[in-house]
Known about the structure:
The structure holds 2 protein chains of 2 kinds.
Chain A: H1 2-28, H2 32-36, H3 43-54, H4 56-64, H5 71-82, E1 86-90, H6 97-108, E2 115-119, H7 126-130, E3 131-133, H8 135-141, E4 149-151, H9 153-156, E5 160-165, H10 172-184, E6 186-189, E7 192-195, E8 198-204, H11 217-221, E9 223-227, H12 233-248, H13 257-272, E10 276-278, H14 282-298, H15 305-316, E11 321-322, H16 327-350
Parallel strand pairs in A: 1-8, 1-9, 2-5, 5-8
Antiparallel strand pairs in A: 3-4, 6-7, 10-11
Helix pairs in contact in A: 12-13, 12-14, 13-16, 14-15
Chain B: H1 3-9, H2 11-28, E1 32-34, H3 38-54, H4 61-76, E2 81-82, H5 88-114, H6 117-131, H7 136-151, H8 158-161, H9 167-182, H10 186-198, H11 202-236, H12 247-252, H13 261-277, H14 285-307, E3 313-317, E4 328-333, H15 345-358, E5 368-372, E6 379-385, E7 393-394, E8 397-398, H16 399-414, E9 420-426, E10 430-438, H17 439-450, H18 461-472, E11 480-486, H19 493-505, E12 508-515, H20 521-531, E13 532-538, H21 544-552
Parallel strand pairs in B: 6-9, 6-11, 11-12, 12-13
Antiparallel strand pairs in B: 1-2, 3-13, 4-5, 7-8, 9-10
Helix pairs in contact in B: 1-2, 2-3, 2-5, 2-10, 2-11, 3-4, 3-9, 4-5, 6-7, 10-11, 13-17, 16-17, 16-21, 18-19, 19-20
Bound molecules: adenosine-5'-diphosphate (ADP) and magnesium ion (MG).
Adenosine-5'-diphosphate binds at residues 67-70, 91, 93-99, 203, 231, 239, 243, 282-283, 286 of chain A.
Amino acid sequence: MVGFRKTSDQSRTQTQARDNISDKLLENLPRLSDLLRREPIQVEKLIAEAIRTKGIKNILAELDKVLRGLGDVALDLLSSLAIGRHVLIMGPVGVGKTTLAETIAEILAISDPPYIEVACHSHMTATELTGDIDIAVALQAGLDHPLAFIPGPLVMAHGKILILDEINRLNPYSQAALLQALQEHYVFIRGFRIRSDFIVIATSNPAEYSGVYELSEALADRMKVIEINYPDREVLRSILEWKSNSLLEHLGTKVPDFMVEVVTTYIMLLVQDANIEVGPSIRSAIYALANAMSRAWIEGREASINDLKVSLIENMVSTVRGNFSSEQEKKDYLLKKFDEALLIAKKMYRK
Amino acid sequence: MMLNEANRLDPISLISDILKLVYEYLQTDTRVIRPGSIRSYEAAVADIFFRLLLEGGEVDEEKFREIVTRVGIQNLLLSVETQSPEEKRLVLEEAFEYALNRAMKRIEQKIKEGLGEPENGEKRKGEKKRGAPGAEGEEREGEQRGQGQGQGSARRRGKGSSLKEGSEMSDLTSDELVDFAGSKMLQELSKQGSYQYSRRSASAQMTGEIIEREVEEVAENDEVEQMISTIYEAFYGGIGAANFMNLAQLINMFVKYDANIIKKVQVLKKLEKYLRSYGFASSTYTKVSSQERRIFEEFRRKTKGQSSDMSQIKIMKFVGSDRYPTYVVNMREYKFGDSYSNIDMYKTAINISRKSLMGKMITTKDIIVKEYANVKSIDLVLCLDVSGSMRELSWGTQKIDIAKDAVSKYVQFLMTTNDRLSLILFNFRADVLWTLHQVKRYWKYMLYMLSYVYAGGGTNLAHALERAREVLSKSRSTAKHVVCVTDGRTVNAQLCIREVTRLRRQGATISTIAIGENSDDDLLMKLSRIGGGLFIKIINIHDLSRALIIDKLHFL
Ligand SMILES: Nc1ncnc2c1ncn2[C@@H]1O[C@H](COP(=O)(O)OP(=O)(O)O)[C@@H](O)[C@H]1O
Ligand SMILES: [Mg+2]
């Protein structure tokens, strides 16, 4: 009897504690009435202020810890953020678009969290961007219950940087919702008007990729385009060396310089190749190098050039696109190019 | 020529100048379909300026050219359209090269004109020094001296604006810079520019003014384009969403909400073809509508007997008769030559139905005509619901079309009076389609605008009432009346009551007309009671025109 009561007491205090915690969590959620009272924020001023206090040199130095060779691009990005111009970063897969957007937003840290990110996809609805009222909750607990209104990223981004990753996947309906928020600085949800000021950094692949929508003219007109391309040879080399080795750090192995040289040459070859429309990504090259090494490490032997060849093709065949009639043809072509790259690299390395 | 000198004249003017030349170039180039929107040019100027500042002073002419070209193209790329997308970048590069060359040449000339011979000598010395590292400070001094002689005290602030001075410069102007960064309009920019720099150089100020003027020209050229993009946005942004833009809102993006109706009609005329291409205006509106009218009148005649349409209008009065604006002085039977709009529909209809029930002939005696004393004029504001529910069909016609028809009858009815009428459209927000205008004089414009009204979006009556108050606040008439027509439930019911109370305090009366089963009758009735007007309930929207006129002649 006593024991029973005790446990019930215990469980009661437990539920109470849980209630307290969930109450606290709820307190942190925005209420509709709060959202409706929002004041305008001049995000570009916050950014200009952040650039001024941090200093360009420090910002670039911090960026260099994550990305190499993108200093100029970063300045182009910062200058447009500081005047309130939305930016579209365009470039092939894996050249650091997303990372650049996130890192710059993190460094500027104009808000907490420093940015809101949306991974755009083609089935995204406008309400996924704006948020909506949960009718069931609203009916039971009232419109102003913290759970009655689920704010979407367009609402959450007030006073922040909004990163729209792969904006080219956004369908026209969601584009329209975005456009309205940019244009009117208000998000409309079931007749409620919520202030939202934010600056967009969008990323996009060039149009030759499949499964993409055109940006609506009106939306495009509000954006400046910054293009990122493959880094030049030396920068690429240092990126590959640095990143692949940091992946291998915990295994205690290191990528031989020669392998880095081969992969660098290989990528430069493919990027310049007229038969290839979409070149390999830097990311896939990094992983190809690390994969080759870890494969050998598992088998307890030294990595060979052949390991590298296999791993390069494995990692890249799916992303590379070009004038090929079949997957096999593409694969053969890539293999042939590898042998070429190997020859060139050998010559270069000897020098 | 040295770039420093150039920038010292006025960096923003210089950049605006370059972009103006780019625009010119693109405008004349046959490969270009669209030279880009003013917005992107504005952004380009500000962006280039800021980007140069970020460079921190290490800008020589080559770097300057490179940054202007690159950042400029970044800003224009998505806005400019060329015949083939592949050559867009090339065309833009050419345009910038042309513009930079021209602008630089102008500056060289300006400097030659501005500086006398002896300084050129000194300047050349400075240039030589530049080659040697560590000579910076000295050189700067030398330059300053040169300026002092050339432009006198007017150039004292020159140091602060030179890009060459770099980091020092960012310190000096960073406050200005942050402020500056916020302003997006090029006009504002060049104004700021000429303000900031005018004290230094008269010629720079002049360029500033020239640019301002030129920018205005560009803006004018761009108006049409802006219009297109706005419409595009309006409808693109609206598909199936609660934020659908109504006609009034759309028009008011181009003119002030209280602009003269003729101005608004002009805007609408420009918008017309786009509206049509988006399917919001049928090109043969009048024809269709008169046909429709005939058909539905036929319909009504046939169904009237069975469903006894008459009983479907319910009226509740909350009227202090002295306050309620009306001006009918007499009622009499119909005489040949009477305008049909003077017919008392309600009374006449009762007479006719009574006669037909009794199987008697109908005579002119049964047609009752009102006589008006056109002495007093009333300021009327009609708030019309154009939410999505108005798109529903009623007897095979969209409710909105019937409502438009009713309002046009109302306008025709008001033509015989001295009244002024304003029409407010509301869906999720309300906008003034036209402000108070005398119907007698402007009815043609009113009917024209009315014909383009379309429906879509949510319902926000409170906003409409707020707008009505705005409109009536400018009225000095003693009789002010607001009529709200809605078929649904509004958001912000509480706010509606507050708005009506305010309107009432302003001396206006408020009537409400509720259509159909879904209307929030309790609220509307409350509003009428507070507003001291009528509450009219009609089940069938076809009775709207009658309801409007009943409201006008409430004493029945
Ligand atoms: N310039 C670079 N410097 C350093 N790492 C890079 C660079 N470019 C790409 N990477 C590497 O490639 C990865 C993929 O970058 P990501 O931002 O996802 O590319 P994207 O968004 O363009 O597809 C990054 O995590 C980074 O490790
Ligand atoms: Mg990415």
